[in-house]
C-alpha cells in the first residue's frame, strides 16, 4: 500500500443523529482530521449539527461530490450502511462506518472488495478496543500473562431498548437484535485479543414475541412484534484453539456476569464492558488475587462522557484518526473493514448455527490487528 506522509483528511459526516454528536465533539482531539460538512435525511438535523460544530450542511449527493471531503463518516442506521458506504466508495472517498459494516456478510464482502479495487481505506466501528482498557488487556496477552489462552466467557445481558428508546422497533428486526447491535463490541475485542474465529455453535430464541414500549414518546404503551432473536448463546472456536462462551440477550433484568473473562495455562484476565474505552482490567496469575489495572488516568481511558457528568470513557473518532495515520504510513487501519467483515461473518454464522442446530464454519479470516502502542496512541492527538 502506498504511503502518504503528513496526511490530513477532510471529513464529511452522513447521519446526524445522537451518535454524531460524540464523533463531532471528539474530532477536535485528534490530528489529521478536519470536519468539513454533514448531511442527513432530515435537513433540520444536518442544519442543527452544522451550526453546533461550525461546518457546512449539505445534501448527501453534494457531500459525496465535494472535493474538500476526503473521507465519509457513515453514521446512518444499520439498514442503509451498505448503500451509503458503497456510494461513498464509488465517489472515491475513504470511509469509516458505524457498526455493523453491513447487515449481511455478502454485502460486507462487496464493500471490502470495492475499497480494495479502488485503493481506498475502509474502516468500521467499534474502535473501543483501541482505548486504554483494550490496550492494557492486549499488552498483557501479548506478554504471555495468562499463558496459552484456553477458555473464556463473554456476556452482553440487558433489558433491551423499549424502556428508554422512544422508537425502538427497528432494534428488534433482522440486522438488529443484541447480536448485531451489541455483538460487534464483544466480538471485536475477542478477535483483538485471541485472533480470528474458526467456527461457532449456537442456540437463539425470542424471549417475547411482542415487546411493550414503556419509554416516553409517541409509541408509549404500544406493542410491536419481534422479528429477530433476542437471546443468543454461542460457543466460539478460535483458530488458536481457545474456546469462548458468548451470550447476548435483551431478556435479562439483572445479572452478575463479568463482560469478558479469559483463562489460560498461566492465569486469568478480566475485562470491563467493551462498549467503552476505559474501565478496570484485572489479572490473576496462577490463582493469585486479582491485580487491578485502572485506566482512569490513562490515555483514552479517562471519563469524558456524558459531558454534563462524566463517568465513563468515550473516544469515538479514535479509529478514524488511526485510519488517517494508516493512510500516511501505507498500512491497514486497525479498526479495518476486514476486521469488521470477520465480525459480521461470526454474527451471521451464529444465527445460522442456531437455525441449523449444528456448528457453522466461519467463511473468512482476518489478521489480528497490531497493538496500538502508547507512543503511537499519543501521536494521534492534535
Automatic annotation (TrEMBL):
This is Dehydrogenase. Keywords: Oxidoreductase. It comes from the Bacteria. PANTHER family: BCDNA.GH03377. Pfam families: GFO_IDH_MocA, GFO_IDH_MocA_C3. The keyword DNA damage does not apply. InterPro entries: Gfo/Idh/MocA-like_OxRdtase_N, Gfo/Idh/MocA_oxidrdct_glycsds, GFO_IDH_MocA-like_dom, NAD(P)-bd_dom_sf.
Amino acid at each position: 500500500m502506498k504511503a502518504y506522509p503528513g496526511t490530513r483528511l477532510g471529513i464529511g459526516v452522513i447521519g446526524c443523529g445522537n451518535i454524531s454528536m460524540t464523533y463531532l465533539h471528539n474530532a477536535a482531539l485528534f490530528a489529521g482530521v478536519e470536519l468539513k460538512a454533514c448531511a442527513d435525511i432530515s435537513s433540520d438535523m444536518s442544519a442543527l449539527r452544522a451550526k453546533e460544530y461550525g461546518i457546512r450542511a449539505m445534501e448527501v449527493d453534494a457531500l459525496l461530490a465535494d472535493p474538500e471531503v476526503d473521507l465519509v463518516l457513515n453514521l446512518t442506521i444499520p439498514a442503509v450502511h451498505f448503500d451509503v458506504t458503497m456510494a461513498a466508495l464509488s465517489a472515491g472517498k475513504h470511509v469509516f462506518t458505524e457498526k455493523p459494516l453491513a447487515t449481511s456478510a455478502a454485502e460486507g464482502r462487496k464493500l471490502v472488495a470495492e475499497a480494495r479495487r479502488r485503493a481506498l481505506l475502509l474502516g468500521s466501528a467499534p474502535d473501543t478496543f483501541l482505548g486504554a482498557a483494550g490496550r492494557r488487556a492486549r499488552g498483557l496477552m501479548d506478554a504471555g500473562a495468562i499463558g496459552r489462552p484456553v477458555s473464556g466467557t463473554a456476556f452482553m445481558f440487558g433489558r433491551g431498548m423499549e424502556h428508554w428508546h422512544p422508537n425502538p422497533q427497528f432494534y428488534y428486526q433482522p440486522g438488529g437484535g443484541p447480536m448485531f447491535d451489541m455483538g460487534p463490541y464483544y466480538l471485536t475485542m475477542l478477535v483483538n485479543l485471541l485472533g480470528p474465529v474458526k467456527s461457532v455453535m449456537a442456540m437463539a430464541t425470542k424471549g417475547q414475541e411482542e415487546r411493550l414500549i414503556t419509554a416516553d414518546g409517541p409509541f408509549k404503551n404500544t406493542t410491536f412484534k419481534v422479528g429477530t432473536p433476542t437471546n443468543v448463546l454461542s460457543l466460539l472456536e478460535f483458530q488458536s484453539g481457545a474456546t469462548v462462551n458468548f451470550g447476548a440477550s435483551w431478556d435479562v433484568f439483572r445479572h452478575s456476569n463479568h463482560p469478558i473473562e479469559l483463562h489460560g495455562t498461566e492465569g486469568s484476565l478480566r475485562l470491563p464492558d467493551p462498549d467503552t474505552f476505559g474501565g478496570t482490567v484485572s489479572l490473576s496469575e496462577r490463582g493469585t488475587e486479582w491485580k487491578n489495572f485502572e485506566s482512569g488516568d490513562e490515555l483514552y481511558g479517562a471519563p469524558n462522557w456524558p459531558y454534563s457528568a462524566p463517568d465513563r470513557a468515550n473516544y469515538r473518532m479514535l479509529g478514524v484518526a488511526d485510519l488517517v495515520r494508516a493512510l500516511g504510513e501505507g498500512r491497514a487501519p486497525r479498526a479495518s473493514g476486514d476486521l469488521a467483515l470477520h465480525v459480521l461473518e461470526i454474527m451471521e454464522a451464529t444465527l445460522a448455527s442456531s437455525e441449523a442446530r449444528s456448528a457453522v464454519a466461519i467463511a473468512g479470516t482476518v489478521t489480528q490487528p497490531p497493538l496500538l502502542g502508547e507512543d503511537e496512541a499519543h501521536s494521534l492527538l492534535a
